[in-house]
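Practice problem: Dephospho-CoA kinase domain-containing protein
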Amino acid sequence: STMFLVGLSGGIASGKSTVVAMLRELGCAVIDADVIAREVVQPRRKAYQQIVQHFGTEILLESGEINRQALGNIIFSQPEKRRLLNAITHPEIQKEMLKQVLKYFVLGYRYVILDIPLLFETRRLTRFMKHTVLVYCDPQTQLARLMQRDGLARAEAEARVASQLPLGEKRRLATHVLDNNGERESTRRQVLRLHALLEGSWDFLWARLALGAAVVGLGGLACLLLQRFVS
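Answer key — structure tokens:
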């Protein structure tokens, strides 16, 4: 059976990290695009060298690492600089994600979950996904959680929510929606259902069982050989 990709996204403060933690607990392979994006701009990496070359050393901290805030300020006000930064970092991020997908494939995972914050904003990625999952909560809940989490005033929180595609719109684009309005337990039940659905291919199950039998068989054989050897 072929391996497939599952895209997972949410909105700011919609509870995506809660869902990711639950999926990891269930043993799912989850690749975090944000973590990779931070790693590819570390000193000595290819993207780092290109960023310094184009944006100058004034965007560096004393430690030599990139000052994300300084870089953020530049690209926020200059769209062409933002495009340049994306052109430098995106290929490196995609290369690293592909490397991790292949690693999980070799390890025998049937599917890999890609945790991508802007999955529905960057439409070109969704076509690679067999399923797309949105962690949803209603706008009022989202605002309240964001204000509480980051200690923001209402206007500030509203501005951050407004900078993203509305969850209602993403909801129409997703193949599966996890409603995270309620209690943690209700979200957990939905995650378990999703997990069962993603795992729910019989040929995959038989392959796993056959592999399990083979491993047990080989283990038994190894024990016998070892006993013969030591006796």
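Discussion: The first helix runs from residue 16 to 25. Students who identified this feature from the tokens alone can consider the problem solved.
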